[in-house]
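Q: What does the assembly look like in three dimensions?
Context provided by user:
Components: two
Sequences:
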Amino acid sequence: MPDGAHTIRVECRVNGQPVTLEAFPMSRLLDVLREQLRLTGTKEGCGEGECGACSIELDGALVNSCLIPAAQAEGANIRTIEGIADGAHLHAIQAAFLRHGGSQCGICTPGMILAAANLLARYPQPTEAQIREGLAGNLCRCTGYTKIFESVVAACRHAERPA
Amino acid sequence: MRSFIPAYEMKTPRDLAAALDSLARDPGAWKPFAGGTDLMVLLEAGKLAHRKFLNIWNVRELRGIDVTPSHVTIGSLATYTHVRSNEMLSREFPLLGRAAAETGGMATQNRGTLGGNIANASPAADSPPALLVYDAELELVSATGSRWLPYRNFHTGYKKMDLRPDELIRAIRLPQATGGWKHYYRKVGTRRAQAISKVCFAAAARIEGGRIADVRIALGSVAPTVLRAVETERLLRGEKPGPSVLSAAEAGLAGEVAPIDDMRSTARYRRRVAQNLLAEFLEVLAA
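A: Here is the predicted structure of the complete assembly.
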């Protein structure tokens, strides 16, 4: 192994649970979440911060997990798509995606839901422009944007519980 | 080709002194790493020469926005989200807020920093034209001290800058001197959100008695570095914003920019759009 090749221990919280990760410092958080914790809901699309498929929340902020090195997750509070529902009770955004056909092939869906849930946490009653901007970093290659947008609008209207 | 990730190191200094100490001990070995929105892309693509990264994301001394009557000082780790959500900045330095809001999507804005946007030295970066218009100064710190320099002197060529390997950008300082000015910002990209600029145009002017008393114009993506269009500014100063000065100013601007053909656009298109944005700016001034 070349110089510098050693793993580090990263202590953080993922979906409310304390975890200790063992990873190379520059491993992508995306890969660590998927391969070590088997949280495969977070998807890889472009791998360069353009598409938002790997969106997670890091200390409450929406980020692309493909651009976060594992070392920067030390002490962080992480939420992935697996932590969005409250047990069997879906988040309002998830319920709205189901009702309104907001999901097609599904690859962009976890990122879209993270982005929308994060938006609702910041703006419980977002304007249309705020919704469009909140989702602007997430690409859907099925191009089903209209139903995605409508799902978020519907979730805001009929929010079962605060996001 | 993807990088071999185990070959890369990252260490997290305790504070600014520890970070500067690492940079001083082994100049050039440690690459400062903030939000990662540029460096992780290069790392993934196998295009990053550095093997060792200094994680400065949590260095408190590089954070915060400090306001005095004469200046606003922005810590280099201010993210685009910090910038665009700061009411004072949006009010007094609207071009900066616009640039922050038009850089990437929310996830990028939450991690990308002003200092990183400067040090990455892309001629297509969106916040540097705004910083040039506001006559920003940079504070560069090292283990041996601190120095200030005008941002317009910082970029010395394509991806070249006046920044020693043992230095960090600590802060960006803007003089509070553009109250009452008219501001204009427009980024032209392939689409509204998340695009990299084909042309970015930031400008501000002070109008007195219907004439342009003072004006500053800066552009991105039209030269090897972000560009302050000083010749065009000189042509406009003292003139009425309108058709009488437009063609001379457009010709001046065409002589100042040095765009290239690349994957995002062509030199010809960029030059024409830069002129069109100048015309739109003059319309805003005349209104």
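Follow-up: Strands of chain A lie at 8-14, 17-23, 55-58, 61-64, 77-79.
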